Amino acid sequence: MKADVLKEGLKFINEINEFCGNTARLIIRDEAETDPSYGCLPVKRSMEDYIKRGIINLDKPPGPTSHEVVAWIKKMFNLKKAGHGGTLEPLGYMA
User: Fold this and answer.
1) I want to staple 54 with a disulfide (CB 3.0 to 4.6 A). Which of 50, 61, 73, 80 is the partner?
2) Does 80 share its domain with 56?
3) Do residues 83 and 90 touch, judged by C-beta distance below 8 A?
């Protein structure tokens, strides 16, 4: 099973690297067993887990306030809590 988990994890990392155009070589410094009660591989996570514990990278258009966008996200995903870090103002607006 360990070999399958490692293979699946490396496949995920390679897909991300390919998507991002990253050509750096992956170096494995150490191998260790992981207790599955602490989480799972990203490829095994449900969309619900990503929404509950994830980050939404948002390119906010001009117009709505950061507060409005957070309220929309909460409503869209039926969340009790959500927030934003930093500003959500578009780059052109900040110049």
Assistant:
1) 50
2) yes
3) no
Q: Which domain holds residue 20?
A: 1-39
Render each residue's pLDDT in the chain as its tens digit; 95 residues: 566 777 777 787 888 788 878 887 777 777 777 777 877 777 778 877 877 777 777 777 777 888 888 899 889 888 888 888 766 555 555 54
Residues 56 and 27 in one domain: no
Q: Using an 8 Å Cβ cutoff, are 60 and 89 in contact?
A: yes
CA 65, 66, 69 angle in degrees (round to 5)?
90
Number of domains in the chain: 2
The pTM of this model reads: 0.44
Q: 17 and 24 in contact (C-beta within 8 Å)?
A: yes
